[in-house]
Design goal:
zinc ion binding; alpha/beta; 7-stranded mixed beta sheet; zinc; MSS51 mitochondrial translational activator; Mss51-like_C; globular; 15 helices; Rossmann fold
């Protein structure tokens, strides 16, 4: 293994704040990586993911000070309030000044007309897409209320023939009825009655519903793609799949049915277990031990474990308290970001390599894929494939601390690897050869 990791450009080197902790996800948007921001916690007087989850579900965690949805939505919008031109926060403005929102995207703020004019050449490149991001940011609340995701159909095509979103959509028939149901739900009215912006056109809301649905399904379909690419057979034996590095993104709103699309993909399978493992796993319905014995056929069993993966392996897998995985998937591990994250992931990466575990990781964009590949090659991983993910989320993700950065998409690219790079064998020269 090479002694040094590849040098990364400054834009890919956020700080080393809390590599593994309950708070690290909340630093993500403050370090040029999409995700929840620690500012949200401060604005809502929350201390952890559990309180945040309870709040968006409409519960009233002890000590939370907002009195209704209108105030909650307003406080969440407050986390985006700073001047995009000079980075001034509301409390730093001069008397009489106030932050005003771009009237086109309703997503970024400016303290003066001068800041807006100066920033326009950069902002105009992303203004249209940031308008959609702002809509999706509010519409995501419907997932916490159970209105999204909408139900899907059993597949009428073999998995091998479903190669992209268009193929998946072709099996769903007319989505109008499902979309109409969400458009007419009481929570939709509550949302736009209390949001700090006018209700968008119905066409925009329908498109937002699809984008949020695609993000939810992207993880499941990516797992299904990995099952197929590694030639795993869910009909010959039960499969165990570990989601390594699972965080608030996968577990904050997790439900026991989140991976049931696998039942549609692999009908009459012998049983599939999905175990979320990570130090930022949020308590919820799936927080239960993994199976000791195989679960029921034609069902997906979900469980979660809070902790580092290599420790989970020692405590659960090696002691046979849980099954060894047939497949490991990681969504946006982020070990490309800095030396601290590489070191934090190193025991897990070496474990996956040395135990020859079929593994697929997803990343946000081509640049992240490039630097992740460099690191994996230095670890002598046997890289089997990489490239654009045909089941990438269609919902754009905004970098909060730098909103004019071009948005990225969850699981837009992937890298698939297994075991150690094969060694080149050289035949011995024939006797008498020089």
């Amino acid at each position: 293994m090479a002694s040094q990791t590849p040098a990364l450009p400054e834009s890919f080197t956020p700080g080393t704040d809390s590599v593994f902790s309950d708070r690290s996800g909340f630093f993500s948007m403050d370090t040029n990586i999409p995700g929840l921001s620690k500012v949200i916690l401060n604005k809502l007087n929350m201390k952890d993911y559990g309180e945040y989850r309870a709040a968006v579900e409409g519960k009233r965690p002890k000590g939370i000070s907002f009195k209704d949805y209108k105030e909650m939505f307003q406080r969440m919008e407050d986390t985006f309030k700073f001047c995009t031109g000079c980075n001034s926060l509301p409390e730093h403005l001069r008397e009489g000044q106030s932050l005003k929102r771009c009237v086109k995207c309703l997503n970024v703020y400016y303290c003066t007309k001068e800041c807006q004019t100066k920033n326009w050449p950069v902002h105009k490149k992303v203004c249209k897409i940031l308008r959609l991001v702002a809509i999706d940011r509010l519409m995501e609340w419907l997932t916490s209320r159970g209105d999204l995701p909408f139900t899907t159909n059993v597949w009428n095509k073999p998995v091998s023939e479903v190669k992209c979103w268009d193929d998946w959509l072709s099996m769903q028939g007319d989505l109008s009825t499902r979309l109409d149901g969400i458009m007419a739900c009481p929570n939709m009215e509550t949302l736009w009655k209390n949001a700090s912006r006018p209700r968008p056109e119905d066409t925009d809301l329908r498109q937002s519903i699809w984008r949020i649905q695609s993000e939810f399904l992207s993880r499941v379909l990516t797992v299904g793609m990995a099952i197929q690419q590694f030639h795993l057979d869910p009909y010959s034996k039960p499969l165990t799949i570990h989601i390594v590095g699972a965080s608030h993104n996968e577990t904050m709103g997790a439900r026991l049915t989140d991976f049931d699309e696998l039942n549609h993909m692999f009908q009459k399978h012998d049983g599939i277990e999905v175990v979320m493992v990570g130090p930022e796993v949020v308590d919820g319905p799936i927080m239960r031990p993994p199976l000791r014995a195989f679960g029921p056929r034609q069902r997906v069993f979900m469980s979660a474990h809070k902790g580092l993966y290599h420790q989970f392996w020692e405590d659960i897998v090696e002691t046979q308290e849980g099954a060894r995985p047939d497949l490991v998937v990681g969504f946006h591990p982020g070990f490309h970001a800095n030396q601290g994250l590489i070191e934090g992931w190193l025991p897990t990466l070496l474990l996956l390599r040395d135990y020859n575990i079929p593994t697929l990781f997803t990343v946000f964009n081509e640049d992240e894929l490039k630097y992740s590949l460099q690191i994996l090659l230095e670890l002598e991983m046997n890289i089997l494939d990489s490239g654009a993910n045909p089941f990438s989320s269609q919902k754009a993700e905004q970098v909060q601390s730098s909103p004019n950065t071009l948005p990225v998409y969850c699981s837009s690219h992937f890298v698939r690897f297994q075991g150690l790079q094969p060694r080149e064998e050289f035949a011995e020269p024939p006797t008498g050869a020089s």
